[in-house]
Amino acid sequence: MKKRLTFTLLFSAMASTLFFFSFTTEASRPSEAERPPPPPNVLFICIDDLRPDLNCYGNSEIHSPNLDALAGRSTVFTRHYVSVPTCGASRYSLLAGKRPMTPAELGNGEAFRQLQVKSLPETPETFVDHLRRNGYYTVGIGKISHMPDGYVYGYEEPISDQLELPHSWDEMLFDHGKWGTGHNAFFGYADGSNRQSRKMQAPPYESADVPDEGYPDGLSANLAVTKLNELAKKGQPFFLGVGFFKPHLPFTAPKKYWDLYNEAKITLTPSPDIPENVNPESLHNSGEFNSYRTGDEKASLKDPVSDAYARKLRHAYYASVSYTDAQVGKVLDELKKLGLDKNTIVVIWSDHGWQLGDYRIWGKHTIFERAVRSVLMVKKPGSTSGQKRNEIVSSIDIYPSLLELCGQKPIAKTDGKSFVKLLDNTKKPAWNNVAYSYFDRGISVRTDRYRFTKYFREAQPIVELYDHATDPLENHNIAAQNPAVVEKLEPVWAKGNTGLYDKKQ
Known about the structure:
Elements: H1 2-28, E1 41-47, H2 65-71, E2 75-81, H3 87-96, H4 110-116, H5 127-133, E3 137-142, E4 171-173, H6 182-186, E5 205-208, H7 216-232, E6 238-244, E7 251-254, H8 255-258, H9 287-290, H10 307-337, E8 344-350, E9 355-356, E10 362-363, H11 369-372, E11 373-374, E12 376-379, E13 387-394, H12 398-405, E14 435-439, E15 442-446, E16 450-455, E17 463-467, H13 483-494
Parallel strand pairs: 1-6, 1-8, 2-13, 3-4, 3-6, 5-7
Antiparallel strand pairs: 2-11, 2-12, 8-12, 9-10, 14-15, 15-16, 16-17
Helix pairs in contact: 7-10
């Protein structure tokens, strides 16, 4: 009996101890409400050459239902400006959060090539690299930097194993399909040929009766859907960058997207002529467009294309936009289907605008509004309502903004400022409405009311001023008539002069 009692007391004591231990362990464990939320994922979608021609940006002619639906749950920046109106340089500025400091940073590939010879730097080379260093699994699909598949090689060379951003990616993926290489796909046609294989004897547009996968962006959308399913099971915050090619030249899209439009009813540019008091050196003769040598007509500042051809080209561009919109929709639908939308930041960004016959130009490569203003939408996790913000923001502001949204410490090397406070539609915080753009020996600053541009050249005039209160299409350079405004804007402009043009080019 005594032995049994001892056992019982011992058991009771042990039970008490175990109970107490269990109690204290459970009590010290934070409740679900007290636990910090997991870091948000990031879905960053880059769209090449997309000017703000979407329904949600005010162009009712465009069929863009998926991007419009996203806009209804996002912050849509109506005045977002890129640093450089050419693909690679704009993307370098975005990813590095920097204004161009050297002539190399105005080129499509030179800035990225500087990274190839560097060992892992102490400070991140891009915001993707920064997130990767801080626990994110990073995946790129398509054109995020300048190269169409993220690897460095020439237009007619075999695919290399050299990443354009060697420190940024855990995986860099692309489905080359029937085109074989990223460059071939980027300039590809539905039959598997491309601009290079055709020796430039190629049209600037194509409508083919093929499924979405008949062109490269359909394959990229499918790859993104597959990768999202893998990332959903990984249990690690991720950054997924998806780069779509269209509406970059050639304007190619499946026929069903062309059929969305009545070409005869497509409106033409309200700026068909060269702006007043502007030297033609501020413009260009549509060289990239004219490199597609079997186009119906050539474009030049002296001889604009016919209205009929202009409508065909705008039709082709619009069809390409609608095709890309459908691919974006596939990716967003899968994000929601997997439940990832509840904790994923979604960014839609375009690397610059495009002049669709504006000032007789077909292309980018100017520092006018049409070339440097582009699409930017940011959706916070779980957001169900949207807003439009009219503050002026720059692509260089995306780096610090993403870091803040992801709970990361800011770094000093970026030139941008976080716009996270603008994502709250109940606040109207103070904001410095200034953005700088650089190209062709010129620097342009966009303020709340004006665009003020100065060129480092001999051809006059070298100063241009456009009043967006009375001339939002920038058809009239009024610098000579407004010396007081020019004098007031000079120091604002000077803050964006990085010394770029003091260096040899």
